[in-house]
Amino acid sequence: MGEPDWDAIVVGAGPAGSTTARLLGGRGHRVLLLDRAAFPRPKPCGDSINPGAVNELRELGLLDLIRGLPHAPIAGWRVRSERGHAFEAEFPCGTSGIGIDRSDFDAALVSEAVRAGSTLRCGVRVVDLLTTDGDVAGVRGADGEEIPARVVVGADGLRSVVVRKLGLIRRAPRLRKMALTAKVRGREGGGCLGELHLTPWGCVGIADVGRDTANVVAVMSAGAKMLGRGAETRFDLAVSSIPSLTGAIRVSRVLATGPFDWPTRGTTAPGALLVGDAAGYYDPFTGQGIYRALRGARLAAKAVDEALRGDADASFRRYEAAYRRSFAGSRRLQHLIEGVTSRPWLFGSAATAFQRWPILPNRLLEVTGDLAPASHLLSSSTCRH
User: 2: which of 79, 89, 163, 223 is 20 to 30 A away, CA to CA?
Assistant: First the structure.
């Protein structure tokens, strides 16, 4: 077999994949970006970009592009339980998140990847990996087409084919949750704060995304009685008890996704690496997915660039270590937050403490907004730029 036509194949054109492809294409590599969908396409998501992700967009030179799309600012979050416990917090020092429709956001990032020199092919469903002497050497499509490449990047989301074929799934999901997502108009209140409502069966998140529209996500545990109904009925029942959505009208179809517990045994294998949700994911409550996609893409592009120019084994080892350092603290915090929010009595105690000491929720929001490490929760600093 001769030299492959592609230096890198990126499987999955979401934020992680398209950003990785953009950075590699900009460095002169021959990059093929594959996705089973055509863009723009709807995507079940919270549609919120936290301030850390906003900073990543700035570093990538993409922030002005994204701010030129319909969007809404997110200055902080208001959290309320059905038992009446509540608190709110704002992001620090004038920072802000962005609410934006993922179909707009993802399409913009894909276009930038193509502009940087990557080749996009939509409608391609990858079903297997090619190997040579045990190393990944390309991908195979559902139609039998074989596409060789020097490196394969798995950026294909929660149920990643690349992860499964690499044998890197650590275990089956234990946190059995699913999310139903739709757009609504006419919600009461609005403003610059997102909303999180805790219920006996899960939670509802609300974020304005521009065009007088809000994105609503209802996340349900596997034991919820509503899971036996159709998606639209389940969604409508889930949001019917939320005060700010009483007069709202659903203006899109309901999309479903989950579960949200896919730990991996690593992020690299000979000839391949993982990025974004494919590299491991847990409970979306803190809304850090886009940050990890963009930050992870920068790490992945650096590693692949180094691998293509020199010692692949060493560059992939550095990527594995850097990825772990970047996200290990926030993953542990996600597990802690899920444990608190899923236990009403524990959340009630936390909410009471937050009301008594407002610095605590503000620090928590700073950490989950990816503006500070988890250790900041115990520090004396109250503001970071």
Answer: 163
